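Archive entry: two folds, one per protein. Generate the first.
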Amino acid sequence: MGLHGKLIAAIEFKASGDVFHEIFRHRLQELCTANPNIQGCDLHEGQFGQVGAIISWTYTHAKEVIETIDEEKRLIVLKVLEGDLLEKYKSSVITSHVETKGDNIDLVMWTLDYEMLNEDVGHPISLFFYFIDITKHIEAHCIPCPTA
């Protein structure tokens, strides 16, 4: 059994992929408002939305570094530096990017690349569903509720 894994999801995002990328890159603290499971986001080094910025999330006490930003692809790559994930996984890299398919349908793409510490460690399925949940919360936050 291989110790490397990759999970990929594509979620249709009705609020505009540009909005998702903007929030996930420049307005990370807005995620705390959009998703009640995230209590906070602290900047340790650098600037929000810049490569090299080191960010600490209080949902899993993960500390991540922004490794790559590509505005054209609306892509952000985060590498886990510290936290609960590293108790089971030697490495974890989280990528989000937005793709637009025909008829202006935006898809938020999540990719989780990881290496398990040993063969007894399970795949991080619940974490992966957490990213999907974050996407749904951001979408709900961005689309105004219809008035009665």
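Generate the second and append.
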Amino acid sequence: MDVDISEGKDRIGPMYRDRHVLITGGTGFMGKALIEKLLRCTEVAKIYMLVRTKKGKSPKARLEDMFANPLFAKVIELRGLNTLLAQCVVIPGDVTEPELGISVEDRKRIVENVSIIYHCAATIRFDEALKKAVLLNTRGTKLMVELAKQCKKLEMFGHVSTSYCHLNEKLLMEKPYPPPADPHKVIKAVEWLEDDIVDGITKKILGECPNTYAYTKALGEAVVVEAMKDIPVVIFRPSIVVPTWREPISGWTDNINGPVGLLIGAGKGVIRSMYCNSTGYGDYLPVDFGVSAICVGTWNFIGRKDFSRNIFHLVSSQEIRISWEGIIDLGKSIVAERVPLNGVFWYPGGNMKKYRWQHNLAALFFHWIPAVLIDCLLYVLGYKPVLCRVHRRIANGFEVFEYYANNQWDFDNAGINHLRDQINEAEKAKFKIDAGGVEINEYFENCIWGARRFILKETDDSVPAAKRHMRVMWFVDKICKTIIYGAFFYYFGMWLYNKVFAAAV
């Protein structure tokens, strides 16, 4: 029976007591954060992690590498590494393989013991080959649903979807939506067809859907919705997942997806122009808020037995909105004044362009021409050219980003508002799912510190040198602008004189 809210006792953590949890995608960004949260803030008995061999590393070695991540430093200090290793059981497997690549013995262990499944595994690359995306995001989900149906103690199948998988809906409600195609037919088609054939017909298959990620995640969600009649399902739709707000450390991340990549690119002086609706905004979800919401949603479903809500939007734009231009301007000021990055190519600058032709022109002068000149200089000095390669990757990324940056979506989040009303103050502090206390400038400054420390591996003792380098870049930037603008006005003045005044004389 629930403890009354006024008593202020945590009911969420104890709810996991004696329960065994299976997690896919546990070595990914959100998966790692979810595992850390469960280990630190709940009484979960066992965590089974479906992990594949990658880059020659065994699943067990990958688990050990995961615990070496700074994200786990706090929970290791509290509970000890050996305890955590004993609590986490590695299940070698791969969601892209038939039968999930799981052995008979491991499958039996899962079927006999697991009561909660969190399916987080997915490829989040927007430009992923369609066949690979279908096998992972759609067929992998179907195979996980089939495994869940066999679990004798199953109380909840939690599917981590995305709030950006039904892009034809400008206002997304917390309800199922029809998929863009029959997921089972698409799975059979890509299984039967060769890779090059699938690649050749990808655009036709996608139709109006802009990329394989949104398409295959929508299909995967449809598979889960279909299974609601057979198993207890909760769907979580996070938006753009970004670094931690505070838990367990501020600004932690392990990738440069979303706005973090933009902040780094602008901060390094590499990104000087973007084709983007500057007044538009994206929806961001600090990953610690996301995993807390998953825990609270699980408690609501299992502990409170509230089956009336089983689709939750994990979003922020109903409470906090910051435009694309606001993010870039904030990032430039933070990097230029407080948290400089090492090896800056150019002083942070540039802006967003309303029209594509403006961006293309700016990219030519501020991206490609400097890249070619610097790469030529590097080649002459005996170094490997890098900047043109960097800008090719940026250009490819912009092709995907521009669709999202120049369109707008809003999301209903009545489910999370409902959860907020069900938890007491102790639970709100331990499992934060509201925007109270979030200060945008402080948050993005912590994001840049996080990117500096965890992605770029730049140590704090290099900050003074980075600041000196930034001052030099500022001086160089001013000189170059003076020369460029001076040359422009000189030649424009000469042209005007020859056309107008000289002709009149």
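Annotation attached to the second fold: The chain has a mean pLDDT of 88. The radius of gyration is 25 Å.
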